Amino acid sequence: GQQVMQIPQYQHVQEGEDFTTYCNSSTTLSNIQWYKQRPGGHPVFLIQLVKSGEVKKQKRLTFQFGEAKKNSSLHITATQTTDVGTYFCAGHPAETSYDKVIFGPGTSLSVIP
Amino acid sequence: DAGVIQSPRHEVTEMGQEVTLRCKPISGHNSLFWYRQTMMRGLELLIYFNNNVPIDDSGMPEDRFSAKMPNASFSTLKIQPSEPRDSAVYFCASSLALAGASSTDTQYFGPGTRLTVL
């Protein structure tokens, strides 16, 4: 079946260090979304990437969509304690006609002050 | 905008009891999703409605689970009878799916219902 994987599962960084999480799909995606879930909270939409090779930036966050539209990455520069949480990628399989995404297992980020 | 509303926020029940979770999507949204989140299995899609019609219920674990969407502003997820392994956080999310759109629309999640089955 269709699968979306993420690595690493957990990441502990010192405040100020960079952080990257990688997302890989078993099938080609029409687009990919990224969500952030704070501890005890609910997933909150961050961004959507649609085009092959697309790169988008939100302040210290950089999102990339692979050329083959099967992988993506989220990079945070100079992490802050406010970045703590779990980051999920969610892929929309290209062969799916309706509005369904498959969530990856998430990468849990801890930031040591 | 009030966002997606879920009730109750917390539910503690005993094994064998019926549990009903409720969701009010964002006004104007035509897609509604029920998810279950656990440490072991992560975020799982249980069922997806579009225009009040169930489109994909392949994620519903078994016959003990059922979901309804009688109108555009209300949905329920029922577990009967409940079991300890059903303990999880259940999220409802809604989106505005545009017909023919090439991109997937943003899903707005509710605060979730934390279910504990003893």
Class by SSE composition of chain B: mainly beta
Approximately how much helix is present in the residues of chain B? under 10%
As a percent range, the share of strand residues of chain B is: over 45%
What can be said about the biggest beta sheet of chain B? 7 strands, mixed
Terminal Cα span of chain B: 36 Å
Query: Low-confidence stretches of chain A at least 5 residues in length (pLDDT < 50)?
Result: none
Quickly count the helices of chain B: 0
Oligomer: heterodimer
Protein described:
Chain A is an all-beta fold and about 110 residues long. Helices cover about 0% and strands about 55% of the residues of chain A. Chain A has strands at about 5, 10-15, 20-25, 30-35, 45-50, 55-60, 60-65, 70-75, 85-95, 100-105, 105-110. In chain A, strands 2, 4, 5, 9, 10 and 11 form a 6-stranded mixed beta sheet that branches. Chain A has a 5-stranded antiparallel beta sheet with strand order 1-3-8-7-6, with no helix packed on it. The radius of gyration of chain A is 14 Å and the shape is globular. Chain B is globular. In chain B, strands 2, 4, 5, 6, 9, 10 and 11 form a 7-stranded mixed beta sheet that branches. Chain B has a 4-stranded antiparallel beta sheet with strand order 1-3-8-7, with no helix packed on it. Chain B is about 0% helix and about 55% strand. The chains are: A mainly beta (about 110), B mainly beta (about 120). Chains A and B meet through strand 4, strand 5, strand 9 and strand 10 of A and strand 5, strand 9 and strand 10 of B.
Give a brief outline of the structure.
With 113 residues, chain A is mostly beta strands.
Q: How would the blueprint of this fold be written?
A:
The complex is a heterodimer of chains A (113) and B (118).
Chain A lengths: L3 E4 L2 E5 L4 E7 L3 E9 L6 E6 L5 E4 L2 E5 L5 E6 L8 E9 L8 E2 L3 E6 L1
Parallel strand pairs in A: 2-11
Antiparallel strand pairs in A: 1-3, 3-8, 4-5, 4-9, 6-7, 7-8, 9-10, 9-11
Chain B lengths: L4 E3 L2 E4 L5 E6 L6 E8 L3 E9 L2 E4 L8 E7 L2 E6 L8 E8 L12 E2 L3 E5 L1
Parallel strand pairs in B: 2-11
Antiparallel strand pairs in B: 1-3, 3-8, 4-5, 4-9, 5-6, 7-8, 9-10, 9-11
